[in-house]
Recover the amino acids of this structure.
């Protein structure tokens, strides 16, 4: 029997995939695994029973990845599962910023019920007119799951697309149309593009990446879209650029005190992934990954431990050890097993920076003190014996 806790509303389409042997709990003290969306876990004190956290979504800046790794808690996310939902909202953002559609709709609401509204609208409409996106240049910063979809869709809408991503993975590159201009420095995007959209994670390197200097390199009247994270943009600097009109419009999915309600700012209440399809995709992927980890020890799509997959566990026990990535760990594990006459049928070890993971399929039934003895080895963080 395993127990899971949901720290946000997670789609039933995913939760219903848990078999009957899984029970939902409201108490973290009972939970083997946690499911979360945007709730912040930075202040959470994780009890020892928690083995994994699944972020049903992409961004993991709400989860203390290092703290979790140190406690032997594997954190997963669900890459790409909500990318289409975000892409569609970004396209809406491009269009909302290109004419004053929102201002126009508000005008109609304010004059609702008036006899002469049709005629008045014809006189007023020039106030809300704008440009078309066809033929304009779009700069996409970050060409992962979302950025690639946005870039390709914008091409189909007739835009000229410039893409910037110095860490582009081979898989992401395969998803990109060859008609996208590959840009090697951010300045070129700033210099060339009429619209710029951000699709990078917020990490130390990207925090505040849009600041006074980057803004000053952008064209006069640029439209900036941010469906990634508020912290990517230095708000004071952006406000200044909005006030002078250098930035014509800022479209963001992240309401903040400083920017909400300001002129030229279109704020959406973090709706990028809020579609039935995205919520269901994320929840399904999160549940499958957690189940695979609990039952087979496999790590797929982790953001703090290496991915490591030995397939479905057979009838013999499988031992899994989360540990620091230092020399002689495997030697110590195999020595301990050998001393007890346990034969190893299969073994896999993978590392990622400071952390590593070893999975061992044993031929014999485990001896009672095995987990405790392994835990006594220096640099071991967590041991699990899956029977
Ligand atoms: N608004 C929403 O509801 C919503 C939904 C999903 C994701 N997001 C945000 O969007 C981000 C991206 O999501 P994704 O699914 O595309 O993630 P992803 O991991 O597939 O793509 C991120 C891309 O950014 C690139 N990158 C990293 N640092 C960079 C840098 N300094 N300059 C340029 N590129 C850089 C990476 O190489 C990667 O290709 C998430 O981290 C999250 O913060 C928001
Ligand atoms: O990073 C993400 O996946 C998005 O910001 C979605 O967040 P949400 O699951 O809270 O809607």
């Amino acid at each position: 029997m395993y127990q899971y806790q949901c720290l946000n509303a997670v789609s039933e389409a995913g939760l219903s995939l848990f078999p009957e042997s899984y029970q939902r709990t409201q108490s973290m003290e009972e939970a083997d695994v946690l499911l979360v969306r945007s709730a912040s876990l930075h202040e959470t004190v994780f009890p020892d029973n928690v083995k994994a956290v699944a972020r049903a979504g992409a961004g993991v800046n709400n989860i203390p990845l290092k703290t979790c790794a140190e406690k032997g808690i594997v954190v997963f996310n669900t890459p790409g599962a909500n990318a289409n939902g975000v892409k569609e909202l970004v396209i809406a953002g491009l269009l909302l910023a290109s004419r004053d559609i929102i201002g126009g709709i508000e005008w109609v609401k304010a004059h609702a019920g008036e006899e002469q509204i049709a005629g008045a609208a014809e006189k007023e409409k020039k106030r809300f007119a704008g440009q078309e996106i066809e033929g304009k240049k779009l700069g996409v910063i970050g060409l992962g799951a979302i950025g690639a979809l946005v870039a390709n869709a914008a091409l189909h809408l007739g835009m000229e697309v410039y893409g910037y991503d110095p860490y582009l993975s081979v898989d992401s590159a395969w998803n990109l149309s060859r008609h996208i201009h590959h840009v090697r420095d951010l300045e070129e995007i700033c210099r060339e593009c009429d619209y710029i959209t951000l699709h990078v994670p917020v990490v130390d390197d990207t925090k505040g990446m849009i600041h006074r200097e980057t803004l000053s390199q952008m064209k006069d009247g640029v439209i900036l879209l941010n469906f990634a994270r508020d912290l990517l943009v230095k708000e004071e600097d952006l406000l200044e650029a909005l006030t002078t009109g250098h930035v014509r419009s800022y479209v963001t999915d992240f309401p903040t005190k400083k920017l909400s309600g300001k002129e030229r700012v279109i704020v959406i209440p973090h709706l990028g992934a809020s579609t039935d399809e995205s919520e269901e995709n994320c929840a399904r992927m999160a549940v499958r990954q957690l189940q695979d980890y609990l039952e087979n020890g496999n790590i797929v799509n982790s953001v703090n431990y290496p991915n490591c997959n030995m397939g479905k566990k057979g009838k013999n026990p499988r031992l899994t050890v989360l540990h620091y990535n230092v020399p002689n760990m495997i030697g110590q594990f195999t020595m301990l097993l050998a001393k007890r006459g346990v034969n190893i049928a299969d073994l896999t070890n993978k590392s990622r920076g400071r952390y590593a993971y070893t999975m061992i399929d044993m031929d014999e039934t485990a001896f009672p003190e095995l987990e405790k003895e392994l835990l006594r080895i220096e640099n071991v963080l967590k041991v699990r014996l899956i029977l």
In short: The chain has three domains: 1-82+276-305, 83-98+131-267, 306-387.
